[in-house]
Specification:
Layout lengths: L10 H15 L1 H8 L13 H4 L8 E10 L7 E5 L1 H4 L23 E3 L5 E4 L8 E5 L8 E10 L4 E10 L8 E5 L8 E9 L5 E10 L5 H7 L1
Helix pairs in contact: 1-2
């Protein structure tokens, strides 16, 4: 670590700066405090040796810490959701807006980006939106088979006769279509990415005053 050397200011120089500043602020008061009655008042006649009785040396060190505000850590997270759920996500867009001031930003540093949304064909239904399965009503034949009892002739003998007709459930195809349970019938899933907010890089100095004498100046210099 580099050695720190502190050079204390000359007390006469400090007093000289003070009396000239005080004279500009309130010259009449200076004349009243340090002037000689009947003589022309002069600042040159006011010396530290004559008026400053006790002095105390303390160290006050003023320095600034370099603080850099920059982009959030790199990284991304992908999510895959159905079409209706896209509207439930709070997306952000920074396209054409430039970099963001990190100190003014309110929210998470990694957020869903609207421009990252992409459609992905559903792997379950292969992009059809529905699934085909054998019709349970006709057992996949597309035909409904029934047997009716018929009365034959004058003697009205009972005889069973078959009767066939197309299945109304599957429209005679033998298959039923159901919306895909994965994509909900929308054919596609939708992928988006959680990405860092594009913060601008800002380098600032944080003022700090360290003093061995606890005085009011710590707060005053810190406020500046």
């Amino acid at each position: 670590m580099t050695d720190i050397r502190i050079k204390t200011p000359n007390l006469d120089e400090i007093f000289e700066v003070w009396k000239r500043k005080a004279s500009r602020v309130d010259r009449k008061r200076m004349e009243k405090e340090f002037g000689t009655k009947g003589a022309v008042f002069s600042l040159d006649a006011v010396s530290a040796a004559e008026y400053v009785k006790d002095t105390m040396k303390e160290a006050a060190i003023y320095f600034a810490i370099k603080k850099s505000l920059g982009p959030a850590p790199k990284g991304k997270e992908e999510s895959l959701i159905t079409a209706p759920r896209v509207g439930r996500v709070q997306f952000y867009s920074f396209k054409g807006e430039g970099k963001v001031d990190k100190e003014k930003w309110k929210g998470k540093e990694i957020v869903p980006h609207f421009e990252s949304i992409k459609s992905v064909q559903c792997k379950i239904c292969k992009g059809k939106g529905y699934m085909e399965d054998k019709c349970k009503t006709c057992k996949g034949t597309g035909i409904i088979n029934e047997t009716f009892t018929i009365l034959i002739g004058a003697e009205q003998k009972k005889e069973k006769k078959p009767f066939k007709y197309p299945c109304a459930t599957c429209y005679g195809t033998g298959y039923r279509t159901e919306p895909c349970k994965e994509c909900g019938g929308h054919k596609n899933m939708y992928k988006y990415e959680d990405l860092p907010v594009p913060f601008q890089t800002v380098v600032t100095g944080v003022p700090i005053l360290h003093s061995s004498a606890q005085t009011k100046y710590e707060k005053e210099i810190g406020d500046d």
